[in-house]
Design goal:
The protein is α+β, with helices and mostly antiparallel strands and 161 residues long. It has 6 helices and 7 strands, in the order βαβββαααβααββ. The strands form 3 sheets. The chain has a 3-stranded antiparallel β-sheet with strand order 3-4-5. The chain has a two-stranded antiparallel ribbon with strand order 1-2. The protein has a two-stranded antiparallel ribbon with strand order 6-7. A hairpin with a 5-residue loop joins β3 and β4.
Length: 161
């Protein structure tokens, strides 16, 4: 911050009454937009191995999971179901971070707890890849033709890494 009133009075060389100095904030430097290579991906599409079957018999397989926040990991610890059965933590947590599943209007822990065990295992593994280890796909360019494409860095099946 600069004190402009004091400097102006001193620069004039004339006797001035003591005026209170006013603080004028310095302009903030303009933030440069992040290059495309440094954009943080916060949502990750997935496809369930079997799919969630809703009450009408519709199978929902395609979904989106967002990165978890600290709050997402802390709030379920206060849930009585998690306190009574720690294995329930992943159900509550996945219900918070899955933002879309097929055409369902809302995804919550009740949806997750009614998924097939293989889909739950898939989502637990996917959560770990996205939040702990990062996603396993990388965007690259062909060294010969410069065409962009993605490569899988880790295993794509359960248990591979």
């Amino acid at each position: 911050m600069r004190r402009t009133a004091v400097r102006a009075a001193a620069a004039s060389g004339e006797p001035q009454e003591a005026l209170p100095a006013t603080a004028v904030p310095e302009p903030a430097p303009a933030a440069a937009p992040a290059p495309a290579a440094y954009r943080l991906q916060t949502e990750f599409p997935f496809e369930l191995p079997r799919g969630y079957v809703d009450e009408a018999g519709t199978v929902h397989r395609d979904g989106v999971m967002r990165l978890a926040t600290a709050r997402d990991e802390l709030v379920p610890l206060r849930d009585i179901r998690v306190q009574e059965n720690p294995a329930y933590l992943s159900v509550v947590l996945l219900g918070r971070v899955i933002t879309r599943l097929g055409t369902l209007p809302l995804v919550h822990d009740g949806i997750v707890e009614n998924m097939f065990a293989s889909d739950l295992a898939f989502l637990q593994d996917f959560y770990r890849q996205v939040n702990a280890e990062g996603h396993t796909r990388a965007s690259v360019r062909c060294p010969h033709c410069s065409e962009p494409f993605e490569v899988e860095l880790g295993g794509s099946r359960l248990g591979e890494s």
